Amino acid sequence: MIASVAQIAPNINLYLLAPELSLVLLAMIVILVDLVVRRHMAVVGTALVGLAIPAGFTFALGATPHPTQAFFNMLLVDQYAIFFELLFLLIGVITILASYDYVVKEVKAVGEFYALLLLSVAGMMLMASTGELISIYISLELTSFPLYIMAGLLRHDDRSAEAAVKYVLLGAMSSAILLYGLALLYGLTGTTDLASVAATLRAGFRSNNLLLLLADVLIFAGFGFKISAVPFHMWAPDIYEGAPTPATAFFSVGSKAAGFAALIRIVIDAGLGGMSPTALVALVSFIAILTMTLGNVVAIVQTNVKRMMAYSSIGQAGYILVGFAASLVSGKPDGNSAVLFFLLVYVVTNLGAFAGIIALANATGRESIRDFQGMHWRNPLLALGTAICLLSLAGMPPMAGFLAKVYIFAAAWQQGLTWLVVIAVLNSAVSLVYYLRIVRMMYFSQPVKPGYFTASGSLSAALGISAIGVLVMTPLVGVLLAQAQPAANSLFSFLVH
Amino acid sequence: MSFLLTLIIFLPTAGALGVLLIPAKQVRAIRWFAAITAAVVFALTLILYFGAHNNFGDINHLNFVQHVPWINITVGSLAFKIDYFLGVDGLATTMVILNGLLSFLAVVGSWHIEARVKEYMALLLILETGVMGVFAAADLFLFFLFWEVELIPMFLLIGIWGGANREYAAWKFILYTLVGSAIMLAGILLLYFGVGVQTGVYTADMTYLANHFLQGSIPIGSLTVSLQLIAFFLTFFGFAVKIPMFPFHTWLPDAHTEAPTAVSVILAGVLLKMGAYGLLRIDVGFFPQAVHLFAPYLGVLAVINVLYGAGCSMIQSDIKKMIAYSSISHMGYVLLGVAGATAVVGASALTYRQAALTGAALQMFAHGTITGMLFFCVGVVYEKAHTRQIAEFSGIAARMPLAATAFSFAVFASLGLPALSGFVAEYLVFTGTFAVLPIDTGFAAFGIVLTAGYLLWMIKRVFYGPLNIRWNGLADINTVGEILPLAALMVVILLVGLWPGWFVDILQPSMTQLIHVINGVAMH
């Protein structure tokens, strides 16, 4: 059926797409500036100042009433989407600030690095705001391709090349698996629109349909790679270790948050969660337990800090899955608002911790945990900021990581996932061992090399924003949750009509 | 004055930030700034006493309440509510004042610290914030939040400024406490949601939980176990690690021995009391049936604590380790008092049980001051002699008459000499508990004999006998940083010992309420 112009016109709404469009344009401009001006400062300045435009559009969309869908439901700009779009823009800003020195010193491909980063952010924003299977897949690829290249940007480093190749191969495989799942879903329902999928499923399928479960499993497996859930986590340590450190910081938060954004959208808005809840909850809980435990236990024995952070981010994905499992049980938004809040805190905290690691790498050129020795003497504020972020990851109050975790655990407990919570709580205790080990290195041991080292202003700003953010989010948690809650609710309002 | 408790809690943090702003070279300024902050906080805690006008209240009648909604969201079926809710009753008032006093004295007693003074003082003040928050919180989640806040400063204080084996001790401390508090969190969640489902009101408000007990039971295998019992065991585990109760005590000797003097004082003086406070406020207050069921076993554990701690003290060759083990022994009296107060219910032995519970609460304060003084004494001796091995000393009273006097005074207080605070507390515990658990009390009473044995024997070996010529040049107590803590604690110990009624009056309403709750068990 070919739609007439009269049908199409109301569905085209470029204003709703403005954040992503302006971001892609910005990426082009950044490349041009790099070609013409060839000064690092100018490139970074363009990228940072330019980010105000998509951010402004997103804020405007969030603050004013607007139609929530356009392009035949391919674009869904509800509060859920706006929450994630702002989150991804925040990731972009902090990553750019944190990567300034490192990119000059190690990467030497300035324009490419920032343009790829911006394109990937645009992909992530689309991942959170599409309601259609094909566009989810396309935006996933738009997110991933720049990441593959960024992993290999250290052109003279074998490990970086290895990381890029591994990332491409495994990423392609996971995309294929995901596509298989989406194709099955399309084959079963005859539509790619999430709302229609949900309606068809509700009308004509019984719970525990085997093919539908297979589609679920394939979709989970595909996204499991993005969120580094066990057993699809193998790529993370190698690629985290090999990639340029700012890129690693970006993968560890961006890829994960986008993966969760799309996964939650599909499961809830396509009505997958409602079809065979018991089986899905069992599956997700099992994966959550494996992911938390493996991540946290293996992180303890790491000697390279980037590998440690890789396993730490696997462990953190496990906690998020606990909240996701809770929302599957209830079929209501409670678990999801906990997940959204946790993601927000995790993003800020993890970027802060990585800023500390980048500062260390800039100063010493090394990335082993032992190199953190006596960091307190060499730059006390940097050590303090890093310590605050690491302790927040471990869930120590008064840092925001504590409340984020408690909220997730409470949501899961409320849904009767008691054992899952007990395992998560114990995991959280275990995780303190490896986070504290770095704190111990920084404060207890004498430095290997004496003498101050300084971090650049932008890197300090990145770390400062994160560390202060982690501290002020605790008293402001009421306000933030008030934002996360309608975002989580909006997913369900979509389901209703 | 609703913000008084907020001021008491966060003034130390503000002081810590102030300390961090002073350049590291200005060591004198840093010390004075920290000391003045701690002194002001201590003065503010005294307002809790004088401002209460002899109406100290219980959990249902808190003083100096500040209640601000903080997190309140209802999404789907999940209601998640945490309030910034502060308030103190008599029990909490004593603990807040104890923390104010000991934190101030710890700052003064750390005057001799030369390494990284800035960070040291800042951490000591942040630690004070955490502990104040635990005692002043009237919301269960807030309580837990502050409970965790205290961990990291303590970890760093032991790990950076401690003795030779400091890293091991710091790790052991934090891992034990953390596993304890992780399990405690599970108990708190169970309580929160259990009561929420039961009454339809989801709240961690302690005043609500003190009047709406967790009911119901769940099947585990072929058994049916009451939810209250499970929640009790989960939270009690966290407190038992902190108190510390045998067999979860092994972190304590290491942490106390390795920590610098003033940190040992805080550790033994107030951190252990957090566990005991949780036992009274949360376990006895919110899980009366479970505590009542567990009381006979708690009595036995208390006896083991008392005798095992004393036995271990007996064989120590290091003075500080001996004092550390004596803490385990003395915290056993708190457990014994709680066991005695809860072992029977209804009208039987009512006065005795109230006495036992009051004794337990009083012992918390008394032990805080006495053990604080003992650690200060050990610190002084170590500072001058650079060793703590009993066998290396002999007759140093000839060179350190003031130290010998102070040390002997603290030892007398610790072994329960009448007219000193330890006697009052132990007397109340023993008389009260004897009426209910005579056999346990009979065994525990040997603890007093053992305490007298190891402490007096240590005093004899260290201070008396012929003077070892190695110590000919030993200096006596001579700085304000050494004299002030000892003198202040001496005064407090005498004050409580000579005039216990004054102190018992503060605790009375809280204890009456707890006994009332326990008696309510009979009616269910």
What does this structure look like?
The complex is a heterodimer of chains A (497) and B (524). Chain A has 497 residues and is mainly α. Chain A has 2 domains: 1-265, no CATH class; 276-492, no CATH class. Helix content of chain A is 79%, strand content 1%. Chain A has helices at 5-8, 14-36, 40-50, 52-63, 79-107, 110-128, 133-151, 158-189, 194-204, 210-226, 235-242, 245-269, 272-275, 277-300, 305-330, 334-364, 375-378, 380-394, 400-414, 418-444, 457-472, 477-496; strands at residues 69-70, 75-76. Chain A has a two-stranded antiparallel ribbon. In chain A, helix 11 (235-242) packs across helix 15 and helix 18 packs antiparallel against helix 20. The longest helix of chain A is centred in the middle third of the chain and has 32 residues, at 158-189. Chain A is globular. The two termini of chain A are 24 Å apart. The mean pLDDT of chain A is 87. Chain B is mainly alpha-helical and 524 residues long. Chain B has helices at residues 4-21, 27-50, 90-109, 117-136, 140-149, 151-161, 166-199, 206-209, 227-242, 251-258, 261-286, 288-314, 319-342, 350-385, 401-414, 421-434, 438-463, 480-498, 500-523; strands spanning 63-75, 78-88, 217-220, 223-226. In chain B, the strands form 2 sheets. Chain B has a two-stranded antiparallel sheet. A two-stranded antiparallel sheet of chain B has the order 3-4. In chain B, helix 7 (166-199) packs across helix 10 (251-258). Chains A and B meet through helix 16, helix 19, helix 20 and helix 22 of A and strand 1, helix 5, helix 6 and helix 7 of B.
